[in-house]
């Protein structure tokens, strides 16, 4: 991703360590020189179809799911002991633009098998999905994941958008997810 800044405005409640922490996000900041690009001006392709396979059907995007539910489905899918099913499930909730950037499915599977996303595969990981910050058709969700009591939590920022076209109209889907650090969050309070 390109270097840049993004603006988040509102309050995200997410899990840090063993408790809940409240993060007031009302500033412009740069997280690890990454920026989430919007795809509002281009015509989105249809959702890529993902074969369900013998292990069951993937849950599909629908307009009744909230951003927190979408992220919970994706994180739970990455933690699924049936890795193939979990990766397919996570990919189904990636926005068409995300699928184009990180797909096809085998490439996406390789990406989520590597750090930092591989933390969700740890059988001892505890994760918590924070309260979404929703601004119109965009949402940000903070997820904390901790593999053990004495380990430092991993923080992930999920960027979602409500889709505007076709069969995905009004469905929340993930445009990007990236790891951030506690230090990045601390900088927001200065």
Brief descriptors of the model:
alpha+beta, Nuclear Transport Factor 2, Chain: A, 5 helices, two-stranded antiparallel ribbon, disordered N terminus, 190 residues, five-stranded antiparallel beta sheet
Outline the structure in words.
There is one protein chain. This protein is of the alpha+beta class and 190 residues long. The protein has a domain at 61-181: Nuclear Transport Factor 2, Chain: A. The chain has five helices and seven strands; from the N terminus they run ββααααβββββα. It has helices spanning 67-79, 83-92, 96-102, 105-112, 182-187, and strands spanning 6-16, 19-29, 126-129, 133-135, 138-146, 154-162, 172-180. Strands 3, 4, 5, 6 and 7 form a five-stranded antiparallel beta sheet that branches. Strands 1-2 form a two-stranded antiparallel ribbon. A hairpin with a 2-residue loop joins strand 4 and strand 5. Helix 2 packs across helix 4 (105-112). The protein is globular and about 45 Å long. It starts with 5 loop residues before the first strand and ends with a helix.
């Amino acid at each position: 991703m390109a270097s840049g800044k993004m603006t988040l405005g509102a309050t995200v409640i997410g899990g840090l360590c063993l408790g809940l922490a409240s993060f007031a996000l009302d500033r412009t900041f740069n997280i690890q020189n990454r920026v989430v690009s919007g795809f509002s001006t281009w015509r989105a392709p249809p959702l890529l179809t993902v074969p369900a396979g013998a292990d069951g059907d993937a849950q599909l995007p629908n307009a009744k799911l909230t951003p927190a539910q979408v992220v919970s489905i994706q994180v739970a899918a990455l933690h699924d002991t049936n890795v193939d099913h979990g990766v397919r499930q996570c990919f189904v909730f990636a926005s068409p633009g995300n699928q184009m950037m990180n797909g096809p499915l085998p490439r996406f599977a390789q990406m989520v098998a590597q750090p930092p996303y591989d933390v969700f595969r740890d059988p001892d990981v505890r994760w918590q999905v924070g309260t979404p910050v929703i601004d119109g058709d965009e949402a940000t969700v903070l997820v904390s994941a901790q593999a053990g009591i004495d380990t430092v939590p991993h923080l992930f920022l999920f960027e979602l958008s409500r889709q505007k076209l076709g069969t995905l109209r009004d469905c929340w889907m993930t445009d990007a997810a990236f790891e951030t650090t506690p230090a990045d969050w601390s900088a927001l309070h200065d």
